[in-house]
């Protein structure tokens, strides 16, 4: 358990002990420090022995956050600052949680254009790894960044915005916390809006055949393939002016635990498993509701899991999904979490996985109960090679074994980013073992 180590008001609050959400990374003994203002933050970056790493809500699986020195939490940088209702932009505290920002933005008549499956991430954490939702014409969250204020690895204040250092905008949008610690982010927002949400089940082959059309016809479309069932769950969201409808939101873990029970009892009897899955699916509730965008797009994820997600060229993604499905159903009776399939529009951020065209993301999950996670090495040995062969780029925050050389070969602007990183953080104050390996830095 984290222990409170320092409650002195003149020094930043500090506790020790950190672990990421799924506990896939070893527990960290580093201090977690919560600076009150930019002066404290700059001092921490300059003076902490071993350097610092910024953390959001710890929802990444890759080794981005562990630190040889301290982990810096931006909880005190969480306010809604200047709002420009004309341009629908606002300066927002980089450490604010998306779920706390949405209702505050709604009070200004504004909303995020899109959100991912959850909204508990911090704004800086989510954008720094190119967190995305789904929608053929909708970009990842980082592409909506119009400006940032940060303390660089050299401990200096830097603004990148329409006013200053504008050319650096595509570098700072997706930056892994490697250029500096973001304190404020100017986001492009849209008018507060309502969505019509539909959830239904359909034969998997039919969904594969219709997927491109469903992406074209709906503002947001995604589907989950339920392994061993030949069935997919489809979800659409579309703009509407209709009245809100009551939602029987089931945030219990019953559905996923039912899939687990069928795996536990019938994993080695695929025919029976499929039969009972079909019965369970036919009784599963479908949804047809209207509500505020942010209340419908994201939901709670209470069952811990490990996840690999790759962003693939549109022409390759559904074939990759099919290869993954066939492999898992032949060799991995233990998998029961649905595979997720989403689409994201192109943007221009140097390290955005979507910067060379729209991509379809395919994600595979394994159960990770604390202390006894399901074995997931096969994600690296069996599934990652499928995604690699088909030109996939890994989600920056999710499981993958891409090396620095792999990333360099994947991203045309990787070298330019690495050069900028070395300029803004000449002494490697923001480096940790993971980033050192990624950037080949000493
Ligand atoms: C249950 C679950 C559901 C998820 N759903 C989705 C989804 O739908 N779509 C998707 O794309 N991803 C999804 N993710 C992945 C998640 O959105 C990303 O890993 C995201 O980066 C996590 O945000 P965080 O606030 O937890 O950041 P952390 O994981 O704490 O940090 C992520 C990165 O941001 C950096 N960072 C944090 N704060 C700052 C700062 N102030 N300045 C500079 N850098 C900073 C960190 O150093 C690190 O490099 C999901 C993850 C989980 C566990």
Automatic annotation (TrEMBL):
Keywords per UniProt? FAD, Flavoprotein, Oxidoreductase
Record field: transmembrane: none
Tell me the SUPFAM superfamilies matching this sequence: FAD-binding/transporter-associated domain-like
Provide the organism lineage as a comma list. Answer: Bacteria, Pseudomonadati, Pseudomonadota, Alphaproteobacteria, PS1 clade
Which GO molecular-function terms appear in the entry?
D-arabinono-1,4-lactone oxidase activity; FAD binding
Name the InterPro entries on file.
ALO_C (IPR007173), FAD-bd_PCMH (IPR016166), FAD-bd_PCMH-like_sf (IPR036318), FAD-bd_PCMH_sub1 (IPR016167), FAD-bd_PCMH_sub2 (IPR016169), FAD_lactone_oxidase-like (IPR010031), Oxid_FAD_bind_N (IPR006094), Vanillyl_alc_oxidase_C-sub2 (IPR016171)
Q: Which GO terms describe its cellular component?
A: membrane
Q: Name one Pfam family in it.
A: FAD_binding_4
Q: Where is the FAD-binding PCMH-type domain?
A: 25-192
Quote the protein name from its UniProt record. FAD-binding protein
């Amino acid at each position: 358990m984290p222990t409170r180590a320092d409650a002195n008001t003149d020094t930043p609050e500090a506790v020790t002990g950190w672990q990421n959400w799924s506990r896939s990374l070893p527990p960290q003994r580093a201090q977690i420090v919560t600076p009150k203002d930019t002066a404290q933050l700059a001092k921490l970056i300059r003076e902490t022995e071993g350097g610092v790493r910024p953390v959001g809500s710890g929802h990444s699986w890759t080794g981005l956050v562990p630190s040889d020195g301290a982990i810096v939490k931006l909880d005190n940088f969480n306010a809604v600052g200047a709002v420009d209702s004309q341009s629908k932009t606002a300066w927002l505290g980089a450490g604010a949680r998306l779920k706390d920002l949405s209702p505050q933005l709604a009070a200004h008549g504004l909303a995020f254009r899109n959100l991912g499956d959850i909204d508990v991430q911090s704004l800086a954490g989510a954008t720094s790894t190119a967190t995305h939702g789904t929608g053929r014409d909708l970009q990842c969250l980082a592409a909506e960044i119009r400006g940032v204020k940060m303390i660089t690895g050299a401990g200096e204040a830097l603004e990148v915005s329409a006013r200053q250092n504008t050319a650096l905008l595509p570098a700072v949008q997706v930056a892994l916390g490697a250029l500096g610690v973001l304190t404020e982010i100017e986001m492009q927002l849209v008018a507060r809006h309502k969505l019509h949400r539909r959830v239904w089940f359909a034969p998997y082959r039919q969904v594969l055949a219709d997927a491109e059309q469903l992406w074209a016809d709906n503002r947001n479309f995604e589907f989950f393939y339920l392994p061993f069932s030949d069935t997919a769950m489809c979800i659409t969201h579309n703009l509407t002016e209709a009245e809100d409808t009551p939602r029987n939101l089931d945030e219990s873990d019953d559905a996923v635990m039912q899939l687990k029970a069928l795996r536990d009892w019938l994993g080695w009897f695929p025919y029976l498993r499929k039969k009972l899955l079909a019965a369970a699916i036919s009784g599963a509730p479908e949804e047809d509701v209207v509500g505020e965008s942010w209340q419908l797009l994201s939901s709670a994820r209470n069952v811990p899991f490990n996840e690999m997600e790759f962003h693939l060229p549109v022409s390759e993604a559904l074939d990759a999904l099919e290869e993954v499905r066939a492999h898992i159903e032949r060799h991995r009776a233990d998998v029961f979490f649905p595979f997720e399939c989403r689409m994201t529009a192109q943007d221009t951020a140097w390290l955005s996985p979507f910067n060379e065209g729209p991509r379809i993301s395919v994600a595979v999950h394994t159960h990770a109960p604390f202390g006894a996670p399901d074995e997931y090495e096969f994600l690296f040995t069996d599934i990652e090679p499928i995604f690699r062969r088909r030109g996939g780029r890994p989600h920056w925050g999710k499981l993958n074994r891409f090396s620095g050389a792999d990333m360099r070969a994947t991203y045309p602007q990787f070298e330019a980013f690495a050069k900028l990183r070395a300029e803004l953080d000449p002494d490697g104050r923001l480096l940790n073992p993971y980033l050192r390996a990624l950037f080949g830095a000493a």
